[in-house]
Amino acid sequence: MKVINDINQFADLYSLGLQNRTTLTNEFGRLTDKSAAVLNVQIIQVSETSGESQVTVNRVTFVDSPGTEILAQDPETVRMKQGATPNQGMFALQDVAMDLDSVKV
Question: How many domains are there within the chain?
Fold first, then answer.
């Protein structure tokens, strides 16, 4: 885990992560198009109120998964073009994401 204190440190760390991502090519195209990336961010906020310290912790996970751009398309159109079997995983991920989005906290 890397502790950062401002947006510039975050930008530097994010750029380093992008530089370390695979950028080779093979007969199927750029390998970055086929590699997943995960960025976990934990934000800890400490505030003082009436002499009491209150700690708030938030966590966010960003996932760049290859092939997920098809989730932005109409599912029926994708199924007709590519068939249901190769895309079952993508549509299952879409269902999970939509379920998580509907949860009220």
Answer: 2
| 1-58 pLDDT, tens digit each | 778 888 999 899 888 887 777 666 666 566 555 667 778 888 888 898 888 999 999 9
**pTM score:** 0.50
* 56 and 71 in a common domain: no
Same domain, 51 and 82: no
* Residue 22: domain span: 1-66
Q: What angle do CA 80, 84, 87 make, to 5 degrees?
A: 110
SS3 state of residue 68: helix
**Cα–Cα distance, 29 to 33 (Å, whole number):** 8
The CA distance from 58 to 44, in Å, is: 7
Q: Which residues lie closer than 8 Å to 33 by C-beta, 6 or more apart?
A: 66
Same domain assignment for residues 50 and 20: yes
List of residues 6+ apart from 89 with CB closer than 8 A: none
> Per-residue pLDDT tens for 74-94?
777 766 666 655 556 667 777
